[in-house]
## 1
Amino acid sequence: MKRDIVIIGGGPAGMITAVTARGSYPDKKVTFIRREDKVLVPCGIPYIFHTLGSVQKNIAPDKPFIDNNIEIIVDTVINVDTKNKTLKLNSNEEIEYEKLVFATGSEPYMPTWLKGHELENVFVIKKNHEYLEEVKKKTDAMQKIMVVGAGFIGVEVAEELNKNGKEIYLVEKMDSIIGKAFDSEFVDDIHQSLVASGMNIITGKGVQEINGNGKVSSVTLEDGQKIEIDAVVLAMGYRPNIELAEKTGLFIGKNKNIWVDEYMRTSERDVFAVGDCAERMHFITRRPSNTMLASTATSEARVAGSNLYSLSTLKSFNGTIAIFSTKVGDILIGSAGITVSEAKDEGMHIVDATFAGSDRHPANLPGAGTQKVKLITSKNTGVIIGAQILGGESSSELINVLGYIIQNRMRVDEVFVSQIGTHPLTTAAPTTYPIVKAAEMILKKMKCPKFED
Amino acid sequence: MKRDIVIIGGGPAGMITAVTARGSYPDKKVTFIRREDKVLVPCGIPYIFHTLGSVQKNIAPDKPFIDNNIEIIVDTVINVDTKNKTLKLNSNEEIEYEKLVFATGSEPYMPTWLKGHELENVFVIKKNHEYLEEVKKKTDAMQKIMVVGAGFIGVEVAEELNKNGKEIYLVEKMDSIIGKAFDSEFVDDIHQSLVASGMNIITGKGVQEINGNGKVSSVTLEDGQKIEIDAVVLAMGYRPNIELAEKTGLFIGKNKNIWVDEYMRTSERDVFAVGDCAERMHFITRRPSNTMLASTATSEARVAGSNLYSLSTLKSFNGTIAIFSTKVGDILIGSAGITVSEAKDEGMHIVDATFAGSDRHPANLPGAGTQKVKLITSKNTGVIIGAQILGGESSSELINVLGYIIQNRMRVDEVFVSQIGTHPLTTAAPTTYPIVKAAEMILKKMKCPKFED
């Protein structure tokens, strides 16, 4: 049967492409095809283990699509013919399309080189509700659990299992947890807070082998240390799901994502790709980036959904700023742009500064806590290229303040004289607002070379 | 005695000029002269009545100035001679300056035309700690208090007195409370929350007369209604303190502020003015604005402090975006740029939209509440010219996200495809982030003229 706009994939990238296409082209028939009968809120997944308490509470509603006259087909696409502009479903149905969008997402990385990865009770964080129901049921009945990989998913899952009363070992090969998005000194508070909550954290050390007879009994670390364990959760990142794209003959980029241009068009006419399966540049370094974030995916989806039939020249995607935040205990941290370590890897000349102050004013108001902002500036131009924040609940949107500073390529001198809305009960003081103070510190360093890094 | 940089006034504008000048000119002697021995955190003043509980807890520390080698003189300037670049203090001391900055602030408006304004127990919210100690002591012993004027200072003071157990009458001549910064439909939640907390709110009606023999006994409203009352707090706005500037011969602008250019220079060579006493343009309307906010004042102070001896061409002040937020009960509201009513007054063609959604995702996470964003766009250019927000504590920095959107003159299509960092526990979903959704609604309205306002 003929449809107009067909989207493969039901995650955030697929959803937002559908909603945007519906808004952009009110007369077109919009359909998305997904494998799952129920779709999970992806960033909510770690919270099924304790805060939400069940997988069912983390299901994204279909109502917005039904209300918007967007068709949902639950099936698997087994073949795409870009010449005849048709695709074939597992049910054998053939669908004709005018415009096709790949939003096939990503799958958790399974380290097949790791001995024991195939044992029972070795889990990954799949975005599949039946699989996760099983993981939840099984881990509920266990005591000692190891989480391998302390990126933000690993940390969030470990913290939730810990809150759920489990004995947790969080193992990370890098020197610090959440080490890609933050300069290490910035995650010390998170690390300490997790240790204080009773979690065992092992950094700078990988897993050598998972041991067990049929099912997991222990894990041997790289240095020979053996830890008895009931289950292992592998949180070692995700890989783009490009199987169908490869079979379709779409050009695959250097980092094994579907190649796209800035309007999200693939190598084939009338075929687009968005989200984790698509290639993206980094906003600052302009290299292909492996960042997988809903913020990036939904931006790309809005670009694709607005440009399917004709270019609306102003809306294109200029690369991921890798913006994200997470909350561990009562501490919220966020990052956008690049870190000092990434900047140094690129050989960039930078000036950075960190300011910490109270998130209320005066600081003796009830509920006051610390708010910390790090700004990273290109030395040649003064443009802000990265930022990190730490704070309490009132800092929830602070990383987005910085996100717009970065996306607008503001210079540090512009930020220094910018206007900030403040209020005693909810923010830092106008006299010591941390973004402005960090900008001031950078300006001073730029003036007096002795302060520079 | 000779000084280099002399600042008159010890409020936020004076403080930040001093700190910025110190950073910009490390070899200069920086001095500020203020009338008060102790300086209040101005935006914290309403909170002395209950949340802070005392005036003393709202004193801004002098340590940052002492540590930065900034001289503080507590005295009153009685005369400035711009020809000889000297000024005279009440103590008779004469000070020579190289650069002089007026940061003389504002005084509460006293309606001398109002019968009874001179009675005992008629108060204003002066930025003076001794005066406020007295107001606090007296109101603590009273029961029925009327607050006249429901701008944000009036609302905050009324709420605090109400929390402190007083019977409160809040009287506002305009049709809604906080009516200048918000479109009226946006403050309904605040209004209802205040009424639910037991406050009596009377809008659309002014005060006719304050009655009493020596001290206040009742107030007669414009429609003849008489309310028995122990005290009246007049919160009818502030007026720039320009007495000394007039005496000095500085040119006074159309709105009775000290005229300045975009580097904050007055009509006299080597004399600057910043903060509430200085004239400022509105960022959008380009008219002189009566906005008095610490956010604006501190920006101006950073501009002045960076440009005292030579222009650093990139740092100038482009007009106030009138950005501010306040919290009433558990509800936080914020505004930046212009409102729909202001835009209509200017005859601007606009398109606006409001989106309300959950501030967590999924919405059934504990602690989830509503977050609401209104965007106002110029119809000709798509540039965002105003925004209003409402939410809980996690929305504290949301108005600053919008502040940077406005200061960068972003278009609605750019905002629509911009990247936002989200997290289940702390923000709206990436698929329904309220700023992006409001932008989407505006784009739809722009496309289909039938939706336009």
## 2
Amino acid sequence: MSYEIIDLINKWKIFAEDLDSRHVLFMFFIASTKTSTIPGISVAGPDPFSTLYTPTLDVEYLVLGKPRTIDMVPITPEGIPTPALITKAVFNLIKPSYLIVDSGVFREPKIPFISIPHKTVGGRIDEEDALPKDFAHKIFEESRILGRILSNKKMFIIIGESMPGGTTTAMSIIESLGFKGLGRTSSSSPNNPVKLKIDVFKKALARQGSFSSDYDVFRLIEIFGDPLHISIAGFVIGALERESKIMLAGGTQMYAVLSILKRLKTDLNGKIIVGTTRWIVEDITSDIKGLAREISPEVPLLYTKIDFKDSPYEGLKYYEKGYVKEGVGAGGSILTAQIIYGLSIDEIKKEIFREYERLIGSGYVKENR
Amino acid sequence: MSYEIIDLINKWKIFAEDLDSRHVLFMFFIASTKTSTIPGISVAGPDPFSTLYTPTLDVEYLVLGKPRTIDMVPITPEGIPTPALITKAVFNLIKPSYLIVDSGVFREPKIPFISIPHKTVGGRIDEEDALPKDFAHKIFEESRILGRILSNKKMFIIIGESMPGGTTTAMSIIESLGFKGLGRTSSSSPNNPVKLKIDVFKKALARQGSFSSDYDVFRLIEIFGDPLHISIAGFVIGALERESKIMLAGGTQMYAVLSILKRLKTDLNGKIIVGTTRWIVEDITSDIKGLAREISPEVPLLYTKIDFKDSPYEGLKYYEKGYVKEGVGAGGSILTAQIIYGLSIDEIKKEIFREYERLIGSGYVKENR
């Protein structure tokens, strides 16, 4: 098969049983954390400050085919474009329902989006709290309301995200909630700055003074987290209350969401899966399987076996060297196209190449062959 | 049957054919027009200025069970509560997916909602333009984008609204677009201020000087309209592009949306219906059937035959005297419960009475028996 299911305690069958009859909805949560501006932390933008614009440009490009706030598709310092291009290509094929949710982005996107009350840009966690007091709980509850009103028992909701710095705050959330996070989250760079990330966490710890992972979950998120993961966790709980089924479409970051859900004693059995890419699962600088085993063995981990070895474009071949890997629901959208819409990897790749060509044609991406 | 279908040119059957298999989504568009503050125009609030808060309080109550921005459920000067209570009661029973869209409300609601770029509160059309230059087209296009991304060919989308002053601007839109609007739109008061509404339109005309209904549709909306109806029209066109089916859940106002759609030469055959209440269809101060015949004979008009003659509460008996009648998708939500969910009028009424009782119990409504 062109995708694989890592099903640690045999829950995929329960999850999959009525999947075909459900209404598919994609949700993209966006937010910013100033943690992404720490030099060396994130390559999800041409330079540290620009990473604050990436979520906005990602979703504008996804919705409109081109960005609006700044006329620039997010690229790494090497010029490799955002993984949103994969999601966009898949959407060209399957035309699903989808929505954007702003949980606290630096610049509101210039497209219709759902606004979460109390949304706020996350602080730089090595120097300041991630969120003002009580905001983690507020953002959680507001997002839960959204999950509750939007979803129902006939829905399959695929949740993607865009927030540079997210693997750093995710690591920090996982670790602070009492799981083993350090050195386990991935990166959009092949040179995962693990040491720097751990330094950031240590500074957050030092800033905080005394600390125990038994602290209130919401307080821990305010110190060590960001607005995004707590918002997704709230949304998921609201949607599960209405019996939706959920795919967390992302890499190691989604285990920050799962660590919150587990600490809140949410029943996840047969209700939720993680969907990502081969590049994440094979990444030797992180450990998604270890995260899955420790945090949520009842949550099947799916990944698409897509590869860009035969890509005519260098920018995509870079994925095979460990660049980008995942983001903006890229892996989950491919998996959805495979599993629900029955598309082949070849059809999907052909459209990704076409979309890449289009980005070159419109001048957003330079091809350095 | 406890609902009736006025199907002028035999399109209901085409519309209904695959309805049961579609995913139901309710959308509530809210906006404000300062036209509602003209004394005597609107009773959708305890006084003219308060009508500006009504949409916000309506949707907060719908989502949370109680308002948040001000601790007050919208009432008429007589103390009769908002028709949102009907929608709320129906939602207690059917628990559908739904979303709120802000197209330009005076106060943003304190709940998750979709924000439309360029949204703006509408001007008082007897004194000033409804919208700044180019905004009608911008709001239309942004809403169309929302319709396009959110919907797909497996959806049935029911669109409700809350905007006091809406029957006045709707009348003005219909008339300015070249249909017969004057004296044909309804009111939440039994004493429909038809003369005053026509005066407002005449003042808008005089303010404008020369005028022809051949003008660009968007320019006419900027002079005579409001942000709400053009936003709904844009959304509908976007959703129809994706083959969703649509119910416009409202009274005579929805013919302002249809008049825009017709002027834009949208194909509506078998794709869209209007759903409302008996109180609107039987209203002698307006003419929904005339509007249907003239503007969109291909769009079936459905109405629920609910009555509150046997209501234990005076506030609901007032509906039988011509108060309130419709709003916040009340008629369409009852029809959806009847047609899609197979509920009986008696079950629905029982829950409406329970919800009314709850509003009395929590002190939001006084019962003057």
